[in-house]
Amino acid sequence: MPELPEVESVVRSLRDGHPSLIGSRIRSVELAWPGVLAQQPLAVDPAELEGCCFASIRRLGKYLIFSLNCQGKQPRYLVVHLRMTGRLFLVPDSAAVERHTRLALILDHGLALCFDDPRKFGRVWLVNDPETVTGGIGPDALTVGLDEFALRLAGYRRQLKPLLLDQSFIAGIGNIYADESLYRAGLHPLTNSADLLPDGMRRLHAAIRSVLGEAVEAGGANIDGVFKAGSFVVNVYGREGAPCRICGTAISKIRVGQRGTHFCGYCQTL
DNA sequence: CACTCTACCTGTGCGC
DNA sequence: TGCGCACAGGTAGAGT
Length: 270
Hints:
Low-confidence stretches: none
Helix content: 10-25%
Order of helices and strands: HEEEEEEEEHHHHHEEEEE
Radius of gyration: 20 Å
Oligomer: single chain
Structural class: alpha+beta
């Protein structure tokens, strides 16, 4: 499940890989499943992308933001959210549309940018201003400072697990990294944010930064037999019943706000 | 405001 | 072997 580190890794491979997406020109757009386009009515017709060149790629929370130079016309933006099962990658244009391909941008130099998504949860926006898509989310979880983190936290009175998943609080954390961050901070997922002492806030902030930072460097998570983006090894997610790597207690799994939530009942106190 | 539930989807893995 | 079903979860939106 792509969260911040996995999305960052997609950005890096498209931007820094060989070949790179940067500088590529769009020759045509293959909309294999129209439902992939999120907004209605359309702000930008897909056909208007023909002739545009990829100028930059960045990430905000779990959103990928591609800026396009359009031959003297105003720049366009392609915004992508991978949700659960979306994948974005470059292939030879002859192999662009496979079974689960929802959108393919046929590029010059024999390449295609492919958006695959078996579950059809992922979405794409074509807009003149990416803020119209990402405007509602909070600061990026990887870079938010302690002062801003603590200030925002003070505006809520909620269980920590759902709060970390709330993209308008901070952006980029999903179910895996929420559980991993709370474990590293030694905080129980049901702890109420209003009960956090300054030291708990500091620990949570530091845990989020270090977990996400390490996962970015590792190219994403490696979850035994389920999900393999990179080499970041999880401590609690998907390890129900397995021994805590710190104290040996069996990892617990409960449901919090309809989500599977994993924690160590000894290391993470309420 | 905080929470709960549902809908959107389909591949996977389980029990029978 | 094959069928049915629970499950996975990011987000929006409606309801309590």
